[in-house]
């Protein structure tokens, strides 16, 4: 079984003290221990941003590719080895700006992937520019006059595009985040977790206190299988009005489960072999 | 203007009139009758309404390029008459639809006119007007002494999975045309397609076919291609074969996704490829750097069309040589191969899969529109003793595994996730384990390790380029890509000329090229681009400046006749 020490690396920490990524780190380690993630069954795929540096601090196989391109890399991995638990670590800039197209299409295809969106509503690594989830009027280095662009609701987008598991959690609530990550990775299909992640250095609006004051937990009366209600819920945002929990979940066959080539075993379980193509020449005669 | 001694057939009509499939049928009839063919296919970037032509050159021996002239033209619309008849020689023939309102006045005197009521014969056969091309083909069979049975076989094969009524009405239409021509023009029958005794089995293929076949033969496991002319046909070849040959073809949302999916699949252990043209390649460039940096094997097929931007989407050009060579941020040891015809594309593609895994780097196979879409007849290829070589790959658990271990030949041990070997794969500069490491010493050693692959490849795999024709020639032509076919045809009329054909672009065969060119009496460089991209590469690598350049950038093929005339007129 995976233990906390199994996950340690000796890379020097690069997150700012107090960064929400510490909470995500803790929850990822909890999930890895509880779910026995190891280097035989799990691979992380990260985008570029502060969030992507996470792969240096977890002793799990990982691919840190290009800004915005984590989802297609993860898709390629999952398609050829669907037995792997493939978890994408991405940011609001990474997934929704640079990689927006991939995000949309991965949702509708319902690949069996988990996307953890480190949503700090800012570009952290490039030292503080406005992101697709920054609020109206938000002042940053790139919008000194206030953000003129209306923010995206990542979860509304995910539901509309066809993701089959959509949840929100808070980096400051490691227990809830752990539970949510586990539920997302257990879900068969495309799961998105919008993780409210304070960037203590560059985002002075969405602070730890802001989230503590404004989030509320969905209770047992909430039915996450009602798509219309879920869509409405995903649009909620405001004082005391930020819902946290599983917002939408449906049972729909994942892309991989419908592919005949993957019926018996992962594609790469068979070594590539030289194929006899002589029968194919008939068509060209 | 030189004229080559081949029989040529051309069919022209509106896009949507099935010109390409009729042309291909004609070519297969010729091939099944014992001849060799080259099909050149021209069409605009439209689905209906534009002008489409297919030109088929038929010969007794293997030919590698089409001839310019037309001996027998089937005109299904006025534009075909207007565009293609004025240059026809007397003794040639034009077959047209009597009811199509076609004005034959642009046709020069001395040309046989075969007026066939193609549309009414089509309708009388129980089909639609669309079948008039089959009527025309039937009539052409009669007029060229072709064997109607071969056409009938092709029709049966073509429509085998359709309603039997479709086959029946097409057979009827072919016979109606055949019969009409026999009855009305019996004195004008030519002998161009008389079947030969015991024709050998041949295939009619373009590189969209052969690259697909090669990928399957080489054990491809994952393919992601976003449609783009001229490589769309490649995905059409591959997609239907995926279940039978146990690979995945995935249509992605864009080219950036295509290449990143392929990188992910390769990282996870699959032989992977993608394909695109210039525009899509531009989108892929950052990811090509990613494959180089993460040392992920990847095969990329680049089918060039005339650029820039959308350019001439359905016409040919060789203007992406520099793009594929340098298209990535930073510096990587990418391997670039350029095929000269569908057969070379077949073998280079198979080799590319091995090179990608041996050197753990992107391998780009450059082809051009004329190779992608012009069919040629061949004896079926033999993949011979091809063996899959996955390079330095371990699927075992290794103690203290180092994914990016320094090594003098630049190649480190590769593995896949899920095999209990811990490592990071990182687009940031990384140390031997894969962790971020920006120290100067680490950067220098990892950079040197990666780039050493090119020297290793030069030593272990780089062949000398082929020299066609006499070793001791008065003139040496240098070229690459689809020009190969036209040059080889031209050489048949230019016995004092030889041809240096380049298929390896990176690493570049500097020594062999220097030696051949330094010894050449005169040199002529041929390219279908504006700036002479290969000439500049040759001079960069060898210091030899090529002063004679025949450059063509109108999107049209370089014809053998043009080469012969140019060489003669310049007294080269
Ligand atoms: C193609 C490309 N464009 C721009 C960048 C620069 N860049 C790196 S991270 C980043 C944005 C980071 O924001 P986000 O994805 O939200 O991640 P965070 O740092 O906030 O975790 C940008 C613009 C890049 N690396 N690559
Ligand atoms: S810049 Fe912001 S997101 Fe990045 S590590 Fe620092 S606090 Fe965290």
Describe this structure in words.
The complex is a heterodimer of chains A (285) and B (572). Chain A has helices spanning 21-34, 70-80, 92-98, 100-109, 154-161, 174-186, 208-214, 227-234, and strands spanning 42-46, 62-64, 85-91, 114-119, 122-123, 129-130, 165-170, 191-196, 215-217, 242-249. Chain A is α/β, with parallel strands linked by helices and 285 residues long. Chain A has a single domain, classed as Rossmann fold (3-Layer(aba) Sandwich). Chain A has an eight-stranded mixed beta sheet with strand order 2-1-3-4-8-7-10-9, with helices on both faces. A two-stranded antiparallel ribbon of chain A has the order 5-6. Chain B has 572 residues and is α/β, with parallel strands linked by helices. Chain B folds into four domains: 7-195, Pyruvate-ferredoxin Oxidoreductase, domain 3 (3-Layer(aba) Sandwich); 205-378, Rossmann fold (3-Layer(aba) Sandwich); 392-461, no CATH class; 466-569, Rossmann fold, CATH 3.40.50.920. Chain B has 18 helices and 21 strands. In chain B, the strands form four sheets. A seven-stranded mixed beta sheet of chain B has the order 9-8-10-11-13-12-19, with helices on both faces. A six-stranded mixed beta sheet of chain B has the order 2-3-1-4-5-6, with helices on both faces. The longest helix of chain B has 21 residues, at 164-184. The two termini of chain B are 17 Å apart. At the A-B interface, strand 2, helix 2 and helix 4 of A face helix 1, strand 7, helix 7, helix 9 and helix 10 of B. Strand 2 of chain A pairs parallel with strand 15 (424-426) of chain B, so a sheet runs across the interface. Iron/sulfur cluster binds at residues 15-16, 19, 21, 50, 120, 124, 199-202 of chain A.
